[in-house]
Amino acid sequence: MQMNPILRNELKLHARTVRLPIILVIYNLVLSCVAVLFMASIQNQYQSGYPIQYDELMEIFTILGWIQCVLVCFMVPILTASAIAGEREKQTLDIMLTTSISPFSIILGKLVAAMCTVCILVLSSVPILSISFLFGGMSWKDMIAFLFVVIAIGVFVGSIGLFFSSLVKKTPVAIVLTFLVLGIVIIGTVAFFPIANAIYETITYDRIEGTMKSLEFGWASLLMIVNPVVLFLDFMEKSSGRIGVANYFNSWFGVASSSDIYTFAEHWWIVVSLLIQIGLALLFLMGAAFFINPLKGKKRKK
Q1: Threshold 0.90, pTM exceeds
Q2: What is the secondary structure of 166-185 as a DSSP string?
Q3: pLDDT digits over 43-58, tens only?
């Protein structure tokens, strides 16, 4: 099987620079420091006479996992938002489009190149994450699932960056638009519910009786299924033996534990969320390929 030419070229460019090794060292140094400080705090508690709580030792996987999730949500959009817009600024995009490489292959090559950088960082941190294996409760199955979820989130947020990188001509504009949309997806889908409930309570407030009504969102809470951070939260909760985001549905949306949406969130949230986000990523990639296609909007002459 022949490698994507864009991917091969990007990998060669990255291999010839010292930026990636420096980032790799700094990234793992930060993770190592976090792990050492966490272990030191546990040891200090033990020396002070407090018993060791093994549930606290398992939190090291959660802390390091969230650090990597934040890395993916910030690093991948920056890499992909500058991918096509950067080629336009260097005036090399037109040269790419004159080759036999299809627009979608160009987009896919840029995305995979960005994800290769992230995968190298994430895989290099596996020995640090494996510290949690020493205390039990974690397995290689959890580790493989963790890597899959992180990569899927990277593909989703990266596709948004590529879409806007193809849509606009300037890299700073593409980065701003990418993070604006990600802010709506990550923060907006969560903040919408308490804001809507607060407005509804204000409108229905009875000053005479001093009572108010609260909204029952029910299946509307599925709006958060496109949120990659909520997906990661559900995965980390279930990896720790909890029930995931369903545990928050009563306090967030007033959903009873006997309802269908609660059962759905408990058993199917990760699978459905992954499928929807990968599907949306494919649509963003197809949209990006459409915008860089020099033949878009042109009909063939008979």
Answers
A1: no
A2: HH-S-HHHHHHHHHHHHHII
A3: 787 777 666 666 666 7
